[in-house]
Amino acid sequence: MNRDYLPAVGLGITQVMGYGTLMYAYAVLLPEMAKDLGLSLSEVFGILSLGLFFGGMVSPVAGRLVDRFGGRWVMTAGSVVAGLALMAMGLVEGPVSLFFAILLAEGAGMFVLYNVAFASVARLDLGLPPQRSISVITLFGGVASTIFWPLTLTLFNRFGWEVTWVIVGLSALLISTPIHFAVLRGPERHPGSAKQANAPHWPELTGPARKRGMLWMVVSFIFSGYLTGAVMTLWVTNVQDLGHTAAMAALAGAVIGPFKTVGRFFEMLVSRNMYPLVTYALSMVLMLAGFVVLLSLGFTLPGVILAAALYGMGDGIKTIAQGTLPLALFGAKGYGARLGWISFVQMGVNASAPFAFALATQTFGGWWSFAVMALCLCCAIATYMFIPDPRNPAHDPA
């Protein structure tokens, strides 16, 4: 394997562990924990929302640290804290200890998940453009739900949620920590250096269009991302509410992962010719198509499987677009901090999603919860239309 791909492959593996343990495991374990801890579904996901909000608050700090020191020590330390916090989840005895365990886990997660991984690999002096490394990282991350939803359910059925959290936390600690330490070694590009010769030479937004582009891009990211955390954590519960068993809901959810990989593989094949604005639009159209199928045919097994496949392809491509679009529109300088601030705003708003959609599910049912998610995507598409395209001469002050 070309050594230039080694950092992306290593970070791809750790993203499987990171998202599997810090996001997807909640979908299976939090509803069960709520029963034992005497909490309602909305209460337990409300605690998760507070954890996500805290994660958004620390995200700019993680981005700035990567810009200043590189990703090796940031991601290594983050993986240690995240693993210990996940193990602590197995020791909680009430809402207060659950709150602090989730707070620590989600805060640490901002030092090991996609945004920091993207910024870390973009700093390395490699023989391939950052956009290609980002695509490779996300290609691996697509199987996180495929592995961790069935795996977490199996571990829970055998050991209970207490032991399951210890197992997943210890696994994350032992796998992710040495990989982060090993693959992020090597020379780094100076933040002010010229673009690599084989990187796409896309014009950046300038002048008033730059501020306008940041505003509408972030607003669109907020709408398209608002449902992501809810799908991760409530898919199983909502699909059960449509009339399927927990095992079947987890199986359908497991389809999302491989089709994330299918979407990302497609993006890799065409990424040299597809501008990130087009990539982002394609992702939202596919996700919306998935919800249309889910709302109309989700009561049947073929319908929920097809919906998961379409949503998975769109969500897989969207993850890449959210890393490459800020790079294309605003350039590489300050990229880590920029991703951190975007994440801060996005997660500050989106942190309420698990609570809001859990309350919708609890009050109106899974179908209406999915319907509101589809509405969020419609708003994301509408606001996307206002993002300036720097390739358009009308947006070039010269």
Automatic annotation (TrEMBL):
Localization in the cell: Membrane
GO terms of molecular function: transmembrane transporter activity
Origin superkingdom: Bacteria
Keywords of this entry: Membrane, Transmembrane, Transmembrane helix, Transport
Coiled-coil intervals, chain numbering: none
A GO cellular component annotation in the UniProt record: membrane
Protein name as it appears in the record: Major Facilitator Superfamily protein
Membrane-protein topology: Multi-pass membrane protein
InterPro entries: MFS, MFS_Riboflavin_Transporter, MFS_trans_sf
Transmembrane segments annotated in the record for this chain: 5-27, 47-66, 73-92, 98-122, 134-151, 163-184, 214-236, 242-262, 274-299, 339-360, 366-387
Principal location listed in the UniProt entry: membrane
Gene3D superfamilies from the UniProt entry: MFS general substrate transporter like domains
